[in-house]
Amino acid sequence: xxxxxxxxxxxxxxxxxxxxxxxxxxxxxxxxxxxxxxxxxxxxxxxxxxxxxxxxxxxxxxxxxxxxxxxxxxxxxxxxxxxxxxxxxxxxxxxxxxxxxxxxxxxxxxxxxxxxxxxxxxxxxxxxxxxxxxxxxxxxxxxxxxxxxxxxxxxxxxxxxxxxxxxxxxxxxxxxxxxxxxxxxxxxxxxxxxxxxxxxxxxxxxxxxxxxxxxxxxxxxxxxxxxxxxxxxxxxxxxxxxxxxxxxxxxxxxxxxxxxxxxxxxxxxxxxxxxxxxxxxxxxxx
Length: 286
Fold this sequence. Notes:
The chain is flat and about 75 Å long. It has helices spanning 5-36, 40-44, 58-64, 67-99, 106-118, 123-132, 139-143, 150-163, 166-174, 179-190, 192-208, 211-216, 225-236, 247-276; strands spanning 280-281, 284-285. It is built from 14 helices and 2 strands; from the N terminus they run H-H-H-H-H-H-H-H-H-H-H-H-H-H-E-E. The relative contact order is 0.13.
């Protein structure tokens, strides 16, 4: 069907706006990558606008020459995998229980989950709790405080209640299936989209987290990647981190190191995101 003049104008305007939005989103990423691959002199004097100038990997060489980076990567991968697995187990079992209409004291439990969304004890009670549990300066002090989110529980419970007919579960109960079998063979297979989305949120959360490590972990061998990179950036802002270059040259190098550190920390998440993007469509989980 042939479009009218007004429809063509709308299409062109809509296309122009979408291109503009894409450029606004992509430009910061391109800018950071270009800065990280440019020579320290060009970065320091602000000569890099879009494409790299005088291609250089000095900043990456400085970052990857540090053994702390590789140890931080390993620690973050371990924390992210363990934390995500535990989070998914607790999240979906709790959401499944709260989605059951026959759960005893269902409203009471929902209230317990909702209250922490509005009120928090703060960092001092959390620090005392971590210390009293004897997990200070361990990976559990990094993982456990971020293990479960009340908002995510409510989100998954709502998805289960609205997308999975309760009659389907009742028919399985009539056939002799218990709650665990219903959860494993009926509910979870129908929750693949929300599982993927929640898994992505958990992975990104643990990968980018540094505050818990900053407060609860003092052993540098257990630092996650983000905290290691923070230390590198702090070192790059002080003279003395490198002794074979002049002060002026090191000041130039420090600017490039900042951008290369950003790329190093965000690249794994950027590579993982396309595998989950198909579960985001039209602003809702399908």
